[in-house]
Amino acid sequence: MNTVVLGLQFGDEGKGKIVDIFSEFTDIAVRFNGGGNAGHTIKVDDRKIVLHYLPSAVLHEHVELILANGMVIDPIEVEKEINTLEELGIPVRKRVKISGAAHLIRLVHLERDLQVNKITGIGTTGKGIGPCYTDKIARYGVRVREISAPLVKILPNCSQYLHHCIDDGKRVLFEGAQGFLLDIDHGTYPFVTSSSTGIGGVFSGSGIGPMDIDRITGVFKAYTTRVGNGPFPTEITDPQDKNKHHLTIKGNEFGSTTGRKRRVGWLDIPALIYAIRANTVDELAMTKLDILSGIDPIKVCTGYKVNGHKVNYFPVHELSDAEPIYHEVPGWQEKIGDVEQFQDLPVAARNYIKMIETYISSRLGWGGISIISIGPDRSQLIRR
Ligand code: IMP
Ligand code: MG
Prior knowledge:
Elements: E1 3-7, H1 15-23, E2 28-31, E3 40-44, E4 47-51, E5 64-67, E6 72-73, H2 75-87, E7 96-99, E8 103-104, H3 107-120, H4 129-138, E9 153-155, H5 158-167, E10 172-175, H6 199-206, E11 215-221, E12 224-226, H7 242-250, E13 263-265, E14 267-268, H8 269-278, E15 283-287, E16 298-306, E17 309-311, E18 322-329, H9 347-364, E19 369-373, E20 381-383
Parallel strand pairs: 1-10, 1-11, 2-5, 2-10, 5-7, 6-8, 7-9, 11-15, 14-16, 15-19
Antiparallel strand pairs: 3-4, 12-13, 16-17, 16-18, 19-20
Bound molecules: inosinic acid and magnesium ion.
Residues 10-12, 37-39, 122-125, 127, 129-130, 177-178, 182, 193-194, 227-228 line the site of inosinic acid.
């Protein structure tokens, strides 16, 4: 059973928590895109640690960790992460393998990232991602295989290694970084990251094929956030808006890589449908439903007006002429963090989920949300 976990919005959907749940049934975890721009916070005892490179499965000691060819690697940062965890007693070094074909982020990339960002105004994470991929595509990049005395194992051929593991019956989990709306081709270009964050990135970024995948899990938040600049049609922009404040504070919406406050807004169903379809997602996980407790009514975007015409698709390349059409639904006040069964959720919460499912299935023929996360802990999960 090989699984892909993808973010369906602008990143920070809570993929790490879903990966954590799947890790028990995983032998090998693979990162296939991006680099230190990704960030997820894990708790070891009472310490919070932010990881940028290592897959979220890292706390599961039986899982082998692969940084595949599609990634861009800052070896100093990787080394720091490994050491931090090893000092806390978590064996990591022996479990990590890096593809020799992944590209190296160098000082010049970090400098260029900051310079270029001043001109483009994209609001990058400053981790050298864009410039490193630029050199890769221009064919004068430097790859991990050039490191003369690597401190972890380097894979001469990531693709063949994974084939070998899959043929041996190992269970592989491919962990996406960022989200589909930040995809270099399919996102809100030029306000995107420089890699393929969707299903295509799995294939080019690790060298396996579509038939090697058994399940594609798409993760989305019950609302939307975005960090950095670029179109965000359902953003709540009024600084005085109490819902904006609620989502930021209750949702703790601060970037884990840069500490920037994330922009917050309502769920965008057409965008969700776009991401599900483009990635042939076949399982849906919704996160942070608990954060919506206390917001009433809740708004959801169900369509768009583009140049005055109503459309039901996400106008990803015409967002400057588009205006979201909202639907308002009743909210709920109850805290839901310890609910165990779907039927024990407040009726308004159940209706919120059912409404989303109805919209998705009316377009795609299916739309069941089978995993609902209601808090940061592993146990705060409803399965349907
Ligand atoms: P870059 O990936 O550093 O080039 O940044 C490009 C854009 O993607 C910026 O808007 C970043 O804030 C955003 N971004 C990059 N990585 C992440 C992530 O892991 N989560 C959320 N946003 C991200
Ligand atoms: Mg993150």
